[in-house]
Amino acid sequence: MLLAAVDVERVQATGTAIDAGPIPLLQPEWIRATFDNTTAPECRLALALGSAAAEHARGRLVDSVRFNCLPLEGDPRWPKYRQSEKRLLRDPRVVVTGRDAVADCAAIVERRLVEAAQRAQRRLPLVAAYGCSAQLGDLAAFIDGGLDVERVFNLARAYMAIDWRRFKPEKHLPPTVRNKDIPPDGWLALRLSSLPWPILGRSQIPVELSMIRRLQSGDPASAIDIAVRRLRGAGLSVPFVSATCNRDTSLLWAAALVFPVSSSDAERCAEILVPSLKGSIHA
Question: 3-state SS string over 40-106?
Answer without folding.
Answer: HHHHHHHHHHHCCEEEEECCEEEEEHHHHCCCEECCCCCCEECEECCEECCCCCCCCCCCCHHHHHH
